Amino acid sequence: MHRFANPARFLRLAKVILPWSAAIALLSLAAGLYFALLGSPADYQQGESVRIMYVHVPAAWMGMFCYVAMAVFSAMALIWKHPLADLLAKATAPVGAAFTFLCLLTGSLWGKPMWGTWWAWDARLTSMLILLFLYLGYMALVNAFDDPERGHKAAAILALVGAVNIPVIKWSVDWWNTLHQPASVVKMGGPAIDASMLVPLLLMALGFKAYWVCILILRGRAEIAAQKIRVIRMAQIHAAAQAE
Amino acid sequence: MTRKQRRLYFVLLGMLALGGAVALVLTAISDSLVYFYSPTDIITQRIPEGRRMRVGGLVEEGSVAKDGKTVIFKVTDLSNTIPVAYAGILPDLFREGQGVVVEGRMEKGGQFQASEVLAKHDEKYMPKEVADALKKSGQWNDGKKN
Amino acid sequence: MESIQTMLHMGGYGGYIWPAYGISVVVLLLVLLASLAAARKNEAELDVLQQARRGRRNGNSSESQE
């Protein structure tokens, strides 16, 4: 029974957190969308097209954040054999992949009118594409084995190996000449972005983070239930074999 | 307990070794990871004529001229300049004093024939009124270095 | 009416801005719905299994009492 001790605590905690995270996600995304599309000014250089930033940048942050979360969960699973860690790493992957995909897509839709191209093989864009492939590889690997334990282990190692890509993404714009501009918000000397544009950006970022919490809880619940189903099924097969 | 510690050190060492290896590789191939060269790179490194490459810098103020369908302008990194000719559609953000990346070939006589022009923008975002006010009060720092 | 048109036009960038927002909403909704469905399906299946097991256990114990 102690196998389920931690998942049980997670389920209790999840029940309390879910309504709050859902409410925060809804409210901040609603307010964020209002400010992003209506309540914020056009940029002095980029005009209205700057509005794509309010999805693009938070999506990029989430793509990287989810990967870090996945790598931390994977390390916890490998080192301490925490029974929940594998499940939470697996639950985070699709959210991270979705945000990374949206980051690339909105970036493309922004790059066409501003830079004059949908895509450039510069260090930032390429390392972000690698991030998407790491997510896809993780999701393929975690389900590739008959024994879920082995799938979790292999995928956890991939998640840790791929984690070296995260600092490369973050600092690619500083290490090499890129078409992509350097960081605006998280940089030394404070953000280079006007407060009227920082508000929708941060609201959207908060909304995305709360959305991730909701999905983590839902997918975590699904994974815990799936694991319990497996245990019961195994016990049934075992009992049937003994009865014969 | 010791088993857990052993696994912890194993993972930490593995990450360290992997990070070091990746850092070494990235440093070694750093030259091919840059998306463009600066005019100074082009002039000091004597890159052969006719090779396809990208040059990045700022569009020099007052250098943009139209010659029929061809646009002629100069790309500068504030120490060296390269004259560029381009026939095609310019991106919306292309303007004097702004960052630009041109792709094409160096021709005889030091003229760069661009087949593609991409605009590069900086990390500053603000409404027009704020930009105007900053310029007016003299607090504008354009940080023109690329 | 005119304000809706300027909204859609977005200074000429409507063709880029609206797809960016539209596809983002669709993708995030799909992930949410898939996660909800997975949680509901697995938890319902687990309930059925657990009830069957409890039922069988009760049945067994009453049989053994006879």
Describe the 3D structure.
Chain A has one domain (20-243). Chain A is built from seven helices and no strands. Chain A has helices at residues 5-37, 53-80, 85-114, 123-142, 148-162, 165-175, 195-243. Chain A is elongated. The model of chain A has no long low-confidence stretch (mean pLDDT 91). Chain B is α+β, with helices and mostly antiparallel strands and 146 residues long. Chain B has two domains: 2-31; 35-120, OB fold (Dihydrolipoamide Acetyltransferase, E2P). Chain B has helices at 2-28, 30-33, 39-45, 128-137, and strands at residues 52-59, 65-67, 70-76, 81-87, 99-106, 112-120. In chain B, strands 1-3-4-6-5 form a five-stranded mixed barrel. In chain B, β2 (65-67) and β3 (70-76) form a beta hairpin. The model of chain B has no long low-confidence stretch (mean pLDDT 84). With 66 residues, chain C is mainly α. Chain C has one domain. Helices cover 91% and strands 0% of the residues of chain C. Chain C has two helices and no strands. Chain C is rod-shaped and about 70 Å long. The termini of chain C are far apart. The model of chain C is unreliable at 62-66 (pLDDT under 50).
SSE layout and pairing:
The complex is a heterotrimer of chains A (244), B (146) and C (66).
Chain A: H1 5-37, H2 53-80, H3 85-114, H4 123-142, H5 148-162, H6 165-175, H7 195-243
Helix pairs in contact in A: 1-7, 2-3, 2-4, 2-5, 2-7, 3-4, 3-7, 4-5, 4-6
Chain B: H1 2-28, H2 30-33, H3 39-45, E1 52-59, E2 65-67, E3 70-76, E4 81-87, E5 99-106, E6 112-120, H4 128-137
Parallel strand pairs in B: 4-6
Antiparallel strand pairs in B: 1-3, 1-5, 2-3, 3-4, 5-6
Chain C: H1 2-9, H2 14-65
Corresponding CATH superfamily of the largest domain in chain B: Nucleic acid-binding proteins
Order of helices and strands of chain B: HHHEEEEEEH
Helix percentage range of chain C: over 70%
Strand content of chain C: under 5%
Shape of chain B: flat
